Protein 1
Amino acid sequence: MEKDSTKKDKPYQTVRGMHDILPKDEDYWRSIWEIGNEISEIHDFNFIETPILEAVGLFEEGIGEATDIVEKEMFSFKTKGREIVVLRPEGTAPIMRSYIQHHLGHFSSPLKVFYWGPMFRYERPQSGRYRQFHQWGFEVIGEADPFYDVQIMLVTLNFLKALGIKGLKIKINTVGCRVCRPTYRKRLVQYYRTQKRNICKDCIRRYEKNPLRLLDCTVRECKEIREGAPIILDYLCQACNSHFKEVLGLIEDNEIEYEPDPHLVRGLDYYSKTVFEVVLPKNADRALAGGGRYDYLGEVLGGRTIPAVGVSLGLERIIEYIKEKEIDPKRKKKPSVFFVVVGEEAKKKGLCLINKLRLSNIKVLESVGKQSLKNQLKIANKTKSKLSLILGQRECFEETVMIRNMKTGVQETVPTENIVEETKKRLR
Ligand code: HAM
């Protein structure tokens, strides 16, 4: 057997760049699920889920072989059946695969779907950048109308606003299409040819393989050189020009805060026309969400043109921001009752009664074990339960339960057969 290199003397730890989501953060994650589901429903997006493992070619062809994600960041391995698979680095290519595989275009036009789940990228871990992270995504497939470019921005902003995040801004650009982009690329290469000696090593590689990504470099010297580079807006064909103008017009009609950014190109090759990121003005380098139009992805994966537009929100980054700004995670919590049992007989009967209450949709907490009555009441107090239901030896014998109002301390005894009605009455 091969030696397990992760095995050490100390207990096992999470793999580098990956993290556990712990109960202390439950409210943040549940608020995202609850608000996300509601926002998706209100905006008429239907749920879709694709597997975490996909064929490697889906991303090589879909995202592009010369992107950082495909070149350096994929978790890929060979299965026992000798297939090469990857842990998905993103959700858009799998959804287009699913759209084509299941002929989803026949069922609605356009198809509007949402998804959430873990994505995997072998990046250098740092704050806001992990090797396993979660995205919530929205995709509209089968429509080229700018109406949907802006609807995608609106659903993202409405989601983030509902989570309590204010001051959001859209950075927006267009990356043109097959007609106009080649001319622009040529001009860009011409410009950078004269700068080759001054750009970083990564940019020299980008120059050879994927010149548009030269605009994305964060190295200071490269950023300075970028200032003199030609911008795509001067090379757009008529169709891309009017699409972009319409998008900007709709953004203004909807009073969305935005900033055109002629250097925004994004890290995935499937984009055409609109690209955008949602940022907070003081933290513009760390986007909370990013997306755009990908009208050629359907053709790359399935051989026919399927216009589409979408976005993904980075959930860890959103939660980090909510925590940093001490924004209250917005959750409507159900009132709870705490069930106290004293003695073995009460414990046995208690399980049946607790289940009866839960079947009637009452949230019941308990801490059954070797705890005394006093300790259980102490825990009940900490949980901020409205009522405690106490079952001791005497109550078991008399077939009653004692209900204690945790605020006033008033205690009343009720027959066990009425436990559901009596509890509900007091929770109202
Ligand atoms: P992306 O820009 O690669 O786009 O990722 C979207 C968001 O995911 C980012 O804005 C960021 O918040 C979060 N994110 C990305 N990488 C990491 C990481 N390593 N750690 C933590 N968070 C991260 C996409 O994935 C496209 N599929 C978006 C899209 C949907 N385009 C069209 N439809």
Protein 2
Amino acid sequence: MSDNITIAVSKGRIFKDAMPLLAALDIYPTEAPETTRKLILETNRPEVKIIIVRATDVPTYVEYGAADIGIAGKDVLLEYNGNGLYEPLDLKIAQCRMVVAELKNSRNEDRGGRKRIATKYVNIARNYFASQGKQVEIIKLYGSMELAPVLGLADQIVDLVDTGNTLKANGLVEVETITDISSRLIVNKGAMKMKNDLIKPMLEKLTEVVAAK
Ligand code: AMP
């Protein structure tokens, strides 16, 4: 019998949306990540711990077994170059879309037919434009992608959109949807076998809760 379980979650939107799902599993952190600097949160269940890591690090912690399970956005999973994780359930939380956007009155600068695309999501952008048979130049940014077309750094951006308010506030419009995004439950391959007695009932309960939503 396995005796403990570590869950990797990122702060903010995903944590907030994950709380009701954790509550359905009778897991309540004893402190909120917004009010503590601790990165390991104890819960009401002594065998369950929650670790708070950056969204992009969640798959790494889970793949290497530093966490048994995790909650990660599909955007992060599509960008992650790992050697394998189980992704058994779409939790249908933190839903948004990955889109291509450009200035409302795009100047369409002549770059010899090759558009410049600014994004944090280099793999997603590369695969998407390749699937469209379009040759593009991709510029990696780490944030505030919306600025790139405004300042002429890029013709288009690839970014996540929820309400569309951020695009609108910066004079951008969505021109193509690449894919819908939501957060997924991910599980370490070894833990799925070794801790099946703890993980299987969690998975069954979460499947039920998500289906009922
Ligand atoms: P919005 O203004 O509601 O369209 O939100 C767009 C901003 O929020 C962008 O900067 C996105 O990167 C970020 N965002 C929206 N949804 C998500 C999500 N589910 N996960 C992570 N970031 C998101």
